[in-house]
């Protein structure tokens, strides 16, 4: 492809992206293809002779687009949101046009310096303590691909700190704490690092949040049997119910265990901290007082597309102590002198995408007010949805609605005599009906044995009418599921 052809294909790509967004509302939310659909449509091997790009671009529309779920669709309410904004798309286009692996300051100074700046800007807009900022040269922030990577990196740093302080402790005695509501990233981190993992119990009475006394008790038990708890992965906004672990109480316990690292995973909910009115309920004061590391994904609710996971640490030294491996070919003048950040020592991989550019574009183009508007709008829409659930005699909440998440189930008064397992059966049937539709997407989950449905709002194009329609859809599917149940 020469420059002229690239220019034409590029203009066409932007036109097609615009057309996509113009017609998005009229599309199905989920793809209806069957597994293996694409292999049947594509040749068994790559072409020997290069093909005309127009044909390739047309085939994208013909074969690929029908197999995609449209996460930006106004009726996409599944999982967590996956942000995408035009400013962010442009950031990705410019960044990919350079393909600069930016692993050290010296191989692309702007990549590193912009990342350090936008991570500080992001810390500030969320109200994080300034000890997390890069300007301190002690703490700092780094963009990771995902919250799973962030948890893994934080755990590696915590383990390194612990072993440094307790060199006599065998690795098999270390134990990582999560809760029964922590995202699967906790268990996966343990799997990858070969660590023991203990999921601390949370209860419905505590709104599925970890309490300080549960942590205290677990520490006593484990220390008593010779184990060494060295990190707790706590959560602000759990995936299943939006629970916020009691970081104030946890902080009090952590204070008396100086080498127990507190990582706060706020992958989904963390961006809500941009609104001062949600900081208290999101336990920001405790995060600022006690967390050793904090993660939130701008690629979930923060208007920046994948991958945009922010990890801040109070002491960057623990990251670099654990992850700095510098063979001769990676040495540089300022790396040796320690006068610049080499971000390769703050994550697992070496080469890094130039992710900070899209942060810079979006943070500047939207401003703090733009983020606040997006978050408050989603929360307002969720209040509308939750009100519909409250007023219905068909449905009930399984957890208290939080921010832009409502967890509910079909539980009509007339069936209050059903056992949990019978109600679960009814709700599985109800959810199967929802999942079979292509015009709306929600996710199922289970909370301490109760099967339920999650409504998670975050797409920028969702408006009040979409919430009314979602309420009408669940009412209709609920009615049919009940009818079928009764027959
Ligand atoms: N943590 C929480 C609380 C989440 O809800 C999710 C995703 O839903 C994750 C972590 C995983 O995020 P990522 O895909 O960036 O690893």
Topology:
Layout: H1 3-23, H2 37-41, H3 53-64, H4 86-98, H5 109-126, E1 140-144, H6 147-165, E2 174-179, H7 185-193, E3 196-200, H8 212-224, E4 228-235, H9 247-255, E5 261-265, H10 284-290, E6 293-297, H11 298-301, E7 309-313, H12 316-323, H13 333-337, H14 356-391, E8 395-397, E9 405-410, H15 420-435, E10 443-447, E11 450-456, H16 464-486
Parallel strand pairs: 2-3, 2-4, 4-5, 5-6
Antiparallel strand pairs: 1-7, 6-7, 8-9, 9-11, 10-11
The structure holds pyridoxal-5'-phosphate.
Pyridoxal-5'-phosphate is lined by residues 79-80, 146-148, 183, 185, 235, 237-239, 265, 267-268, 297, 309.
Describe this structure in words.
The strands form 2 sheets. The chain has a 7-stranded mixed beta sheet with strand order 1-7-6-5-4-2-3, sandwiched between helices. The protein has a 4-stranded antiparallel beta sheet with strand order 8-9-11-10. It folds into 3 domains: 3-82, Up-down Bundle (dopa decarboxylase, N-terminal domain), CATH 1.20.1340; 101-353, Aspartate Aminotransferase, domain 2; 369-486, Aspartate Aminotransferase, domain 1 (Alpha-Beta Complex). The protein contains 16 helices and 11 strands. The chain has 487 residues and is of the alpha/beta class. Strand 4, helix 9 (247-255) and strand 5 form a beta-alpha-beta unit. The longest helix has 36 residues, at 356-391. The radius of gyration is 24 Å and the shape is globular. It starts with a helix and ends with a helix. The protein has helices spanning 3-23, 37-41, 53-64, 86-98, 109-126, 147-165, 185-193, 212-224, 247-255, 284-290, 298-301, 316-323, 333-337, 356-391, 420-435, 464-486, and strands spanning 140-144, 174-179, 196-200, 228-235, 261-265, 293-297, 309-313, 395-397, 405-410, 443-447, 450-456. Bound molecules: pyridoxal-5'-phosphate. The modification N6-(pyridoxal phosphate)lysine is found at residue 300. Keywords: Decarboxylase, Lyase, Pyridoxal phosphate. Its cofactor is pyridoxal 5'-phosphate. It comes from Rhizopogon vinicolor AM-OR11-026. InterPro entries: Aromatic_deC (IPR010977), PyrdxlP-dep_de-COase (IPR002129), PyrdxlP-dep_Trfase (IPR015424), PyrdxlP-dep_Trfase_major (IPR015421), PyrdxlP-dep_Trfase_small (IPR015422), Pyridoxal-P_BS (IPR021115).
């Amino acid at each position: 492809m020469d420059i002229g052809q690239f220019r034409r294909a590029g203009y066409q790509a932007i036109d097609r992206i615009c057309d996509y967004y113009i017609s998005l509302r009229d599309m199905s939310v989920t793809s209806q293809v069957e597994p293996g659909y694409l292999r049947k449509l594509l040749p068994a091997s790559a072409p020997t002779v290069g093909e005309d790009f127009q044909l390739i671009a047309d085939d994208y529309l013909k074969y690929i687009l029908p197999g995609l779920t449209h996460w930006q669709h106004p009726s996409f309410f599944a999982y967590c949101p996956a942000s995408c904004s035009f400013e962010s798309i442009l950031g990705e286009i410019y960044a990919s046009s350079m393909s600069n692996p930016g692993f050290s300051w010296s191989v692309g100074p702007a990549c590193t310096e912009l990342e350090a700046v936008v991570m500080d800007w992001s810390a500030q807009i969320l109200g994080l303590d300034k000890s997390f900022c890069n300007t301190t040269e002690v703490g700092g922030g780094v963009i990771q691909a995902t919250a799973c990577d962030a948890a893994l990196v934080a755990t590696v740093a915590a383990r390194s700190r612990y072993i440094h302080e307790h060199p006599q402790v065998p690795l098999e005695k270390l134990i990582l704490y999560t809760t029964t509501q922590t995202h699967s990233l906790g268990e996966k981190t343990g799997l990858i690092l070969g660590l023991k993992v203990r999921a601390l119990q949370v209860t419905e009475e505590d709104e599925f949040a970890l309490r300080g006394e549960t942590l205290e008790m677990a520490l006593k038990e484990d220390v008593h049997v010779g184990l060494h708890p060295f990190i707790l992965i706590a959560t602000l906004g759990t995936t299943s119910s939006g629970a916020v672990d009691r970081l104030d109480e946890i902080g009090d316990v952590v204070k008396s265990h100086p080498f127990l690292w507190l990582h706060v995973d706020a992958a989904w909910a963390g961006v809500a901290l941009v609104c001062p009115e949600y900081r208290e309920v999101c336990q920001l004061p405790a995060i600022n007082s006690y967390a050793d590391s904090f993660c939130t994904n701008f690629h979930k609710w923060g208007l920046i597309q994948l991958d945009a996971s922010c990890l801040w640490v109070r002491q960057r030294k623990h990251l670099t102590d654990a992850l700095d491996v510098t063979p001769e070919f990676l040495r540089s003048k300022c790396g040796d002198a320690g006068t610049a950040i080499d971000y390769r020592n703050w994550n697992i991989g070496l080469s890094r995408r130039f992710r900070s550019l899209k942060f810079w574009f979006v943070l500047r183009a939207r401003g703090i007010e733009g983020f606040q508007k997006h978050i408050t709008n989603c929360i307002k829409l969720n209040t509308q949805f939750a009100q519909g659930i409250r007023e219905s005699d068909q449905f009930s909440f399984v957890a208290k609605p939080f921010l832009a998440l409502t967890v509910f189930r079909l539980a009509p008064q007339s069936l209050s005599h059903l056992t949990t397992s019978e109600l679960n059966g009814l709700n599985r049937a109800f959810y199967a009906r929802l999942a079979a539709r292509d015009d709306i997407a929600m996710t199922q989950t289970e909370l301490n044995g109760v099967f339920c449905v999650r409504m998670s709002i975050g797409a920028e194009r969702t408006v009040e009418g979409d919430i009314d329609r979602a309420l009408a859809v669940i009412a209709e599917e609920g009615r049919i599921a009940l009818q079928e149940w009764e027959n």
